[in-house]
Amino acid sequence: MQTAVPSAAQDAGAGQVDWRAPAQQLFPQGHQIVEKDNFLSGSAKVDGITVAVVGTTGHTPIGVEIALAQAVEILKTVNEHPGRPIVILVDTQGQRLRHRDEMLGINSYMAHLGKCVELARRHGHRVIGLVYDQALSGGFITSGLIADACYALPEATIRVMGLPAMARITKVPEERLTELAKSNPVFAPGPENYLRMGGVAEIWSGDLAQAMREALSADRSADRRAIAGLERGGRKLAQRVIDAVADDVPLD
């Protein structure tokens, strides 16, 4: 099947992944994904089934325009294609830090996007996130992390905040944070550490099309991220706190 991509591929820039390469591997049966102002939308075929695709590219920050555009595409899928799976392709440097976005209420736009994803989920849409390049802070929370399950490619960059910035804000020396990052995944960037914490379900390598098929067929009706984080040794208290609250008993 012929894929709908621009006639002339543009350079994704230094340190950036051109979304077309992973898209071809993820959807060998073809896709109709288009890019406009670093926003991705369209559809693709997975095992003969059509899936909706939304996402971002070019390390773009999530501002009010892209947050609203993603929400519109998700609501459009719910209205026009009941039950169609939704794949979120993630490449963002995080929430856009501009006075204009703050004055317009970027937090409300991102909350709206999260509500749209939850609406889709409640209407029977499977929602899968994939970090194919970069995922930082708030932009990641309202995209990959809000999906039923989030996956990542081995070369992906995932972090809440760079250690130098974290050192400036927390007033903890960067050398100390670097040391902590060796044993505590909360401080450390990279998909492996988010895998340990349960935020990333799996790191995909090899046959990406097969990985996508398996992800879309897996039962993700229950949120097992805290359990996975405990089992993998990356989050040792989250599930214990959840159990204590649910059972109304104090922690040991």
3D architecture notes:
This protein is an alpha/beta fold. The protein has a domain at about 20-155 and about 205-220: 2-enoyl-CoA Hydratase, Chain A, domain 1 (Alpha-Beta Complex), CATH 3.90.226. Helices cover about 40% and strands about 20% of the residues. The protein is built from eleven helices and nine strands. β6 (about 125-135), α5 (about 135-140) and β7 form a beta-alpha-beta unit. The chain is globular, with a radius of gyration of 18 Å. InterPro entries: ClpP/crotonase-like_dom_sf (IPR029045), Malonate_gamma (IPR009648).
Explain briefly what this protein structure is.
The protein is α/β, with parallel strands linked by helices. 40% of the residues lie in helices and 20% in strands.
Individual helix count: 11
Q: Tell me the Rg in angstroms.
A: 18 Å
- Overall pLDDT level: 89
The CATH C-level name of the domain at 20-153 and 204-221 is Alpha Beta
Give the terminus-to-terminus CA distance.
58 Å
- Poorly predicted segments: 1-14
Order of helices and strands: HEEEEHEHHEHEEHHHEHHH
Oligomer: single chain
- Biggest sheet, open or closed, and with what strands and sense? 9 strands, mixed
- Morphology: globular
